[in-house]
Amino acid sequence: MKASILASVSAAALILAAGSAFAQNNVSDILQTGTDGAVTVTQSGSDNNSDVDQSGVSNTTNLTQSGTNATSTVVQEGVGFDHETGRNLVQVNQSGDGATSEVTQTGDHRNHTFVTQNGASDSVVTQDGAWNEANVSQTGDGNTSDVTQVGYSNISGNAANTGVTQNGDDNSSVITQDPAEYARATVIQNGDGNTSVVDQAVYGEVNDLTTALVVQTGNDHDSTVTQTGIANADVSQSGDRNTSEVDQSSYHADATVQQSGADNSSDLTQGRGAGHPYQTQNQTALIVQSGSENDSVAVQSGSNGDLNVDQSGDRNLSDVLQSGFDNASGSATALVGVDQSGNDNQAYITQSGALSDAFVDQVGDWNTATISQSIGNAPNPPGGPDPRVATASVEQIGSYNVATVTQFGGSNTVSARLSEASVVQSGDNNESLITQTNSLIVASAANNTASASQSGDYNNSTIVQDGITLTATLTQGGSYNESEITQLGTGHTAEVTQNSDSNISVVSQSGSGNFASVTQ
What we know:
1% of the residues lie in helices and 55% in strands. With 520 residues, the protein is mainly beta.
């Protein structure tokens, strides 16, 4: 039978006579059915409302309301088993003014919920299954926390473990773990107006141990983490108005995002390739933005991917796309490194096919670097190692430089594999273009090499290679120079050095085994 306790009307309230002398207009409703249950309600403030509905075996509810206008609803059922560590437990502590808590806990064996609120905040916890644990602590006004966990563990361990800590005003946290086997989610928000959403789900033993950690310090941050499988995400945002989104759909993915400036945006997607559910294996990602108004976009699909973006200046843009496949060796890595310590720089990297390299280092301002690697990964000799497809690097130390590297082509008979390109620009207002392929000669690898170094100003250079074993080296130390190198065929070497000003050089090679050297 449901007992209604209003002020001193209930006989049970006599037990708490000393503590209730100062209570005013508190309401407590308790409905207990089942075996070995325990409910303790302590109300020392005023205008508080408590509703506990508990059934099942070995369930415990402890509720304390010491502030005013607090509302708590607890629904607990299931079998906690008749020993101390196996009991289902709900513990709610509300102080301050206007807190609202709603806990629904079902399932069997050691589900624990702990809610502590100081201020006019709202908390909702829903747990179903076994070995779930939720901890929510909110200090301030206007905070909201929503935790949903569905675990199904039958062994001695947590199926889902969640911790939410919010200090400040108007923060929002939503955590969903369904279904969750060993899933972990921790959200800590210190400041005002922060929003965090974590959605984790695992399916089957091979996809267990999904983990997410989000720490936001400052104001108006927005973080969203969505992942399945053995994935790990760590997001830390300090400063103001930073936005981070992590979407991981593979069980070997790993992501770390840190943004300490203001108005930074990071969007990372690490997933399986479309139509290839077992394609993704070992993606890892690290994005660190310590400046302001930086924008990072990274998409990795395929196997053995790696990513590193570090933007310490302001208003930099990094746009990376990696796509690959499940390699036979499974030991190499498609690497991307972008480091932008200057301001207003742009870096674009596209890699189609695994086992490619791309590195961009921009120290100056207003530089643009573009690397596109779409060389096919075949042929791979049976039983042999899977060698590097292509490698490219761009280093821009000056300002207003533009560098473009394009590596493409390749088939089972005409291969463009193992092309290497590098651009170094330490002056200002330079432009460099390198294009590498092999569409002419039947070979297992192209083995082409091209490098351009521009230390002067207002230089323009173009290197085009189509064939195999081609080598081109360009150095421009003066200013207002123009250079064009075109190599078609086999085994050509071209060297161009322009250390004075306003020079023009054109080198065109076809056939095989030619050598050209220009010094101006």
